[in-house]
Amino acid sequence: MYNPKDTYFKKAKKEGFLARSVYKLEEIDKRYRIFKRGQRVLDLGAAPGSWLQYIAKAVGKKGKVLGIDIRPIKWDNHPAFVSFWQRDIWKWDCHEAQKIAPCFDVVVSDMAPSTTGIKDADAFRSFKLAKRALDVALTLLPHGGHFICKLLEGGEMKDFLLECKRGFSFVKVFKPRGSRTESREIFVIALKKK
Ligand SMILES: C[S@@+](CC[C@H](N)C(=O)[O-])C[C@H]1O[C@@H](n2cnc3c(N)ncnc32)[C@H](O)[C@@H]1O
To answer: Is residue 17 part of a domain?
Structure first.
């Protein structure tokens, strides 16, 4: 049964993270070793900000982190090497990110559409957001860069994976333990941009 205040929620609160989703990124990072000190990372769908908190700690102050979301983040006193811009991904010219860094080592997307409860419609909207995130990643990542993207399982997943395989040398689907069992969300791990 859906429990909004599950173990991960309580753990996040205790450890000072802004959302339980941080543990999904932590698990992905432990498994695939994504983040390193000094990296430049773009976080799409960054609000309320738990992934930004995790990434900032992982890359350290020699890194650069940019978060984008249509809603504001709740991390008021973030360090200067972390930037946040309130933008709608559909109206955003991603070249603006080059004001922060000419290119990014990692692009992550945890973007999620507001859901309707209609399975296929929600999966399609999630696919559209993921596709937009992939376009941004292909624009801003250099050769060898990594892309991590959330997606709701649905009919379009196969196409999305094919597109990722065209752009990246290693592509895997990963379901973190922190994902609610009833959720159809999965994460696409696309490493080493071709
Ligand atoms: C699951 S939340 C992200 C949680 C975040 N990773 C964290 O750890 O705090 C999904 C986010 O996607 C954002 N989003 C959805 N559609 C968007 C759009 N068109 N442009 C930018 N952000 C969008 C939502 O506003 C929401 O904050």
So the answer is: yes
CA distance 136 to 149: 12
Query: Is residue 67, in this structure, part of any structural domain at all?
Result: yes
Q: Report the separation in Å between the CA atom of 124 and the middle of ligand 1, taken as the mean of its atom positions.
A: 16
3-state secondary structure of 155: coil
Catalytic residue chosen out of the listed positions 24, 62, 119, 150: 150
- Give the chain's domain count: 1
Q: How far is the CA of 27 from the centre of ligand 1 (A)?
A: 19
- C-alpha dihedral sign at 153, 23, 114, 131: negative
Q: How far apart are CA 184 and CA 134, in angstroms?
A: 20
Q: Which domain holds residue 66?
A: 7-193
Instruction: Render pLDDT for 1-40 as a digit per residue (tens, 0 to 9).
Output: 556 567 888 999 999 999 999 999 999 999 999 999 999 9
Residue 2 within any structural domain of the chain = no
**CATH number of domain containing 135:** 3.40.50.150
Q: Is 192 a catalytic residue?
A: no
pTM, rounded to two decimals: 0.96
